[in-house]
Amino acid sequence: MRRPSDFCFAHFVVMAGLASGSWQVFFRVQRILLLSVIVLLPGTPLQAGDLKLRLIDSSGGQAQHLSSETVREIFFMRLSSWPDGSSIHVFVLPDNHPLHIRFAKEFLGVYPFQLRSAWDRLVYSGTGVAPTTVESVEDMVKRVESTPGGVGYAGE
Question: What are phi and psi for residue 132, nearest 5 degrees?
Answer without folding.
Answer: -80, 130
